[in-house]
Fold:
Amino acid sequence: MSEKIIGVLGLGIFGATLAEKLAKFGEEVIVIDNKPNHVQDIADLVSKAIIGDITNIETLRDAGIDQCHQVIIATGNNLESSVLAIMHCKKLGVPYIAAKAKNETFEEVLYEIGANRVISPERESGRTLASTLMRHRIHNIFYLEEGVSIVEFELPDSWQNKELAKLNLRDKYDLNIIGYRLRKNARLQTDISPDTIFPEQATIVAVASSDTFEKYDYLNYLK
Structure:
């Protein structure tokens, strides 16, 4: 089995965008959709593009889904189709299956039948947009798991000219510093110690409790 083949089942906006991005990153991508125009639109970008029914196990087998290391079920509006596609992928021995869900009920069912990850794009996009609109100093947030993120943010004024140990960041913000950049988009510096004093224009990168740290930023407490 190749470790480089990824299957994308369903080519709506979410599936097509995902497949195109993966292909541009150099991954070998197999796509399947029952609408010829969707398949034709992306056929030149991916390794294999098949017109077919993702709920038919023989269609999946013939397309090479049994050789995939990962499969994403990208059609989230029809629960029955997603369930059948996941069941077939499991029978074909796919090690990792992700699936799109339109609501929490779908999400619960898809996890129950064996999806390794369930994605709710609308909810995740809404959370990201809300965070972006309310930020003061945070530049980027990368959600690692529930409640834990990597955050990149401007150095607060009150942190300037103070040693790292004296800022007491772990107790105040549940924050663990990974490193800093001398300016935005500069190379990350990881040579930090308790007596490190950050430059005035620094951008800090840290692992944080998402809820705690974002709340402080939203309330503009990071001054």
About this structure: The chain has a mean pLDDT of 87. The beta strands are 5-9, 28-33, 48-51, 70-73, 96-100, 117-119, 138-145, 148-154, 175-181, 203-209.
